């Protein structure tokens, strides 16, 4: 006679077969989820769809612009790059009543960033320039709302997450000493003129960012640091950010600088002997007027806040895949910040903005020369060439 205890079959003495253990699969076991990629993918999609449905109920007209995105295979990615959804969310953020402690949209952004879904966190990061711009502009404005706790909670979530990831350590950079020759230089002829050996070389260490201390609130003395860390988090993922996020940053950078004096075009009047860039500079002046008329206010602009802004503007200005609209907006913003640096007597900012302006001028001059040569060559075909299609081998 056989008996079963706890799912284990115990054979009788007459049955020579070995015992058989009956096992069951627990769907809640994390080991099973780790070994089943399809189940993990479906759980991520379900979480993203749930978050998108909740967002569509918060944002005005979200049922038409946001809710249909939940039916895609990658809901978070669809939300990140959808212009209609981005426009609806941006319009909700720009309402005068937004940013308060009971703002449902800020609560959604805060909870979404604390989730473990990487794509949903990218959606949150895409609105960091807009949230930072509205927050800083309203803080210094006389007609600011009495409470901006919603914006501050989002910025603090980004700041504290970055502080935990750094573990109380600063961000350092090793600057090489240019007085020492490289390994490819020929050795000096005399021993007396020989520089110290490479073992004696000590790198120069620069501090990009000091250690971060966790914060429970946004104090006036820590406001620039908190926003700077949030913008730095945006910069780390800037290659995945949509165009609208970059344009928002360029717009607010121009408004934050608040300098529309003629000195912002001083560098554009130098070395313009050929005249290839005159038309481009005219377009930039129109873009400057457009950016300067945006919503926002002139703010205190310390160096710790200006650093991440300049990094983002450098990407918008020089990255090859950025559209011309982003480059023009970044060019206008850099010139406004150059004028602000001149007025505030900030040597680091003057050097950085001046370098970006010169790089922008050289790039525009080179592109203008190429276009002039192409238009003057009669053998150049007028029909646009179709893009090359690379076929991957199966």
From TrEMBL:
It is found in: Cell membrane; Cytoplasm, Cytosol. Belongs to the Hyccin family. The keyword Methyltransferase does not apply. This is Hyccin. GO terms for biological process: phosphatidylinositol phosphate biosynthetic process; protein localization to plasma membrane. GO terms for cellular component: cytosol; plasma membrane. Residues 1-35, 375-394 are annotated as: Disordered. The keyword Cell inner membrane does not apply. Keywords: Cell membrane, Cytoplasm, Membrane. It comes from Acorus calamus (Sweet flag). Residues 10-27 have a biased composition (Low complexity). It comes from the Eukaryota. InterPro entries: Hyccin (IPR018619).
